[in-house]
Amino acid sequence: MSGPALHLAVELDGDGAHPAAWRRAAHSPDQLLTPRRVARVAAVAENAGFTLITLDDGVLPPGGSPDPVGRIGAVERAAFVAASTSTIGIAPVVPVTYAEPFHVSSQLASLDHISAGRAGWVVTEEEQPGAARAWGRPPVDGAGARARESRDGVTVARALWDSWEDDAVVRSVATSRYLDRDRLHYVDFTGETYAVKGPAIVPRPPQGQLVVLGRPERVSADLLDVALVDGRDVAAVASAAAGAGTPRVFAEVEVALDTPDATGAERVADLERHAPWTDRGRLRHVGPADHLVSLLAELGRHVDGVRLRPLVLDEDLPVLSRLVLPALSERRLVARPLPGTSLRSTLGLERPANRFATAAALEDAR
User: Fold this and answer.
1) pLDDT tens digits along 147-192
2) 362 contact partners, CB below 8 Å, separation of at least 6
3) Distance CA 258, CA 142 (A)
4) Does pTM top 0.90 for this prediction?
5) 26, 69, 145, 350: least CB-packed within 10 angstroms?
6) Helices 289-299 and 234-242 meet at what angle, rounded to 10?
7) CA nearest 219: which of 109, 125, 100, 102?
8) Contact of 299 with 282, CB cutoff 8 Å
9) Using CA atoms, how far apart are residues 15 and 4, in angstroms rounded to an integer?
10) Nearest residue to 295 via CA among 6, 1, 3, 4
């Protein structure tokens, strides 16, 4: 546990956690992918005091007929949000089941530069066979093979982020040198399915290493900064958090809050007429805001943070902003991210030393 402050993240993909959430959205379906809406929702989350926003993604369209399907890439949305916000952390979902880790690491390092050190990375897997066809790659079959690709992808990305030392860029006008080649390093990674030599094409991220979030059963705990854990009740969440083995642990919580127009249960029932809200084994709160405040306070004894997944963003996010986060702040259970701080600093994580610079220093000391 990082301290008394509970860090709150919120998932902002689409119109909400329910597949039919668009039916209760405050905008027409054709406005879902517009820059104005993306910026507006992110601004609401930042002004409310959330620590982090996450943006789901995958190569295949989300949902299916008759619901609207489609999304813009999470990294692209994250870069746009980074330029229009100032304090909130931004973590896109980027699977490396088929994507090239070299390119993923470059994109995420660039995002950290754009956001001035507020970037994270949610590691997931592409499980559907159609994803392999979309990438033009042979299918990665089985949980073990997908976990291998995630493990190797994170390992490569972390090595590439270190392949430039912090002072590699010298920008010397007198000698016409932009960088010191001696401070660039080859990563020389060889896995079961590919090899990467490096170095990266983007300077080391401001945080040194981005904050990496994922599920410890799918990505080795030693490669994660934040474990995302499930559980249908607080006891199950507490058990999963105790065994995570990562510096920080966030619980996944789905929420359907009472609003001035309808209760959470009524809103869920309305959407269930069109599609089921799939049970993914997560803790789910349906009801008034004050009960959610009590639930989050209880969770705060077992985890460092919570990622909230609102039923319908346009209905639940205002309630979270107006009633939930202020109540938690009044009880000193949460703290706003401070201007000028990195996501690592906000989460109480140290900026890691560069592995190559450390190795060189040890060699020189001998």
Assistant:
1) 999 999 999 999 999 999 999 988 888 888 888 989 999 999 999 9
2) none
3) 41
4) yes
5) 350
6) 30
7) 125
8) no
9) 32
10) 6
